[in-house]
Amino acid sequence: MNIIDTLWQYIYKYYINGIVNDASYNPVDTVTYAILLGISLFGVYKLLVKLKVEIDTRFIIAVTPYILAGSSLRVLEDSGLFSPPLMYLFITPIIYFVIFAVTISILSLAIALERNGIIKDYHFFFCGGGIAWTLVNIASLIVLGEVKHLEYAAAILVLGLLSTGAVYLVSSQLNFTLLTNKLNISILFTHLLDASSTYVGMDWLGYYEKHVVPTFFIDIAGKFTDHPALVMYPLKLLVFIPVFYMLDSQFNEDKDKKFIPLMKLVIIVLGLSPAMRNTLRIMMGV
Prior knowledge:
Blueprint (H helix, E strand, L loop, with lengths): L2 H18 L6 H24 L6 H22 L15 H22 L6 H23 L5 H24 L8 H23 L7 H10 L10 H18 L4 H31 L2
Helix pairs in contact: 3-4, 3-5, 3-10, 4-5, 6-7, 6-10, 7-9, 7-10
């Protein structure tokens, strides 16, 4: 076996196999994708600066439908709508590049229309494009499939709201402003919603976790409780309290502060995307 064959086997085992078979992640591809995400952040930041896009609350609201569009598109793939090789475009991590390409294209069009005086505010056009895309995806899911577990989807939402409300209430009583900040608590809600979808999916319905780190902690918790996925709630807090602290207080230079909103937007994507995918899958019984 020559070095080319060895390299190919390595690449197939740790990268291609996960995409082709939609299998669980492994430590190698997890670390690789994390590094790629970090590198991509700088590229996206430069592109948004070039487009003169300010990442504020309005922009975050406008881009949120594209996160939902990506999640619902992923569930369409889960439901078997697409066949190889087309289906590979809608499996992580490739689907993130597909969603980004569509999103940045519509954003660029919306900005061009505003600058040419055709529309007054690109945010509305941009947001509308994402909403339309999401509605088409969800309508396709309903037409092609069947809503089987609406009650579980509702339970995920209620658990996400209750856990977020509890964190906000305790933080308010302790005057812990880090988690009473509107943007921070909204971000935390997306991740507690993700935790809720994992808990309901695994402990109630027998789904399994694909990601390496959550699987590690869930396996440990399984030695002590019959509901190991509950560990996702404290795990989210243990991760994001330090993250919020660093983002909100440890960056002092202006160039660093300008980068923080993009980082928070990425954190929203990393929480809301799997949360909505899981919830839609459960709702559709996929």
